[in-house]
Amino acid sequence: MTLPQRLQQAHAPGTNTLRDRRSHSRVDLRLTGRFLAGQSEDREIITTNVSCDGAYILSPAPPEPGVPVVCYFDQLGRVAAHVVRTGPDGFAVRFQTSPLKRDKLASRLNWLTNRDEPAPPNERSSIRQTSAGQTFITLSNGTQLPCRQTDISLTGAAFEALGALPFVGDRVQTEYLPAEVVRVESRTFAVRYLRGAEAAGG
What we know:
Layout: H1 18-21, E1 27-28, E2 32-37, E3 43-51, E4 54-58, E5 68-73, E6 77-86, E7 90-95, H2 99-112, E8 133-138, E9 144-152, E10 156-161, E11 171-173, E12 178-185, E13 188-193, H3 196-200
Antiparallel strand pairs: 1-3, 2-3, 2-5, 3-4, 4-7, 5-6, 6-7, 8-9, 9-10, 10-13, 11-12, 12-13
């Protein structure tokens, strides 16, 4: 798929600046939402510029470079990323996405900068989408349970188990945060994330 013209690669012959090394050119765009970094409380997102492979986020207390973060943009949905550098007023992240997801982000960003155009197909009713990825949940006894993640939010997630189900009240470890099982139905279960003192309570 060809990326929208405003988000195509921008390379100036004979130069090797930071801007030239970026995979895709950025556009000045204010996006809002929230992000999670490790086991910290979720924080607000306000971007100053965005591309389909990264963004600069304003923050008075930025995470350290290399820290993985999960961003929930009101206008883009969930995007996994990691911090690549910090600045005096925030930090830059690089998105960790598949080529297909990157193309979708490029299409969405192009529409957001040209709002008089129709919204991209399949994104007119809701930006937020359910998740459908394979993952592992570590149970309290150390066993890894293969699952298919079906939904995720800032406060928890839902899974379809591909093995023995945990019980309500069990503490488990998800890909990003410790959690507690709050619902079990048929082959599915839901968890709520534990943070701060609750997560350290054991």
